[in-house]
Amino acid sequence: MREQESRQALLDTARAMNSAGLNQGSSGNVSLRLDDGTGFLITPSALPYHRARPEDMVPVTWEGGFSGPRKPSSEWRMHRDIYLVYPQARAILHAHAPWCSTLACLELEIPAQHYMVALAGGTNIRCTPYQPFGTQALSDAAVAGLQHRNAVLLGHHGLLCHADTLDAVFSLACEVEFLARVYGQSLMITTKPPLLAEEEVSGLLARFADYKRQGKE
Q: Cα(201)–Cα(207) distance, rounded to whole angstroms?
């Protein structure tokens, strides 16, 4: 993907995130690993996405340097560290999605209540301990929470996920928000919703992996 196309695609994803109700205003952030290996492109800091232009997207190097008219999102460090630790990550989305944020503020993970939890790579979607935004501590917590997973709830904060394309990471974010809503609504009915057995979800992991492979062929 050429640089201008990457900038437009990144902005389109950020706007879609808000339009879908995953996010609001200038909160949240989205990034895309650059094909040339020099770093990644990320949404700018404190600029509402409806006012942003493709040239406002910020290239950031692995050392943390950046260029252009805007500063990168305050969460750039978290994106950088995830890319460095998880080479399969090509796109990252962080949002203050309402139901994900609700569970995160309650310090609750998303368990294996609905079979689609396997899309996130495991038998649950973890919730990390709270850490202040933009800090190395938050980055470290996110990296740890994503071990063998591609989605995590950031304690008292929101949702974070990664995938191999912008379309895929947006779809995953929507699915995780759905799972959070179903679990949150279930807790309004009963304090102990029934969960799928671990072996049942483990079997689904292989089926989803095969499903993703077929989609790439």
A: 10
Helix, strand or coil, per DSSP, at residue 10 = helix
**Range 67-75 average pLDDT:** 95
Six-digit token string for 69: 């008219």
pLDDT tier at 215, thresholds 50, 70, 90 = low
How many whole angstroms separate alpha carbon 133 and alpha carbon 102?
A: 17
Instruction: Answer whether 114's CB lies under 8 Å from 191's CB.
Output: no
How far is 149 from 142, CA to CA, in rounded Å? 11
The answer to whether the beta carbons of residues 100 and 179 sit under 8 Å apart is no
**31/29 Cα distance (integer angstroms):** 7
Q: Would you please indicate which residues are annotated as catalytic (active-site) residues?
A: 75
Question: What's the pLDDT tens digit per position in 158-202?
Answer: 999 999 999 999 999 999 999 999 999 999 999 999 999 988 988
The pLDDT, as a whole number, for residue 213 is 66
pTM, two decimal places: 0.95
Give Cα 182 to chain centroid, integer Å.
Answer: 19
Instruction: Kindly list the structural domains of the chain, giving each domain's residue range(s) and its CATH number in brackets, ordered by start.
Output: 3-216 (3.40.225.10)
**Residue of 47, 64, 62 whose CA lies nearest to 10:** 47
Q: Are 122 and 205 in contact (CB under 8 A)?
A: yes
125 forms bridges with which residues in the sheet? 110
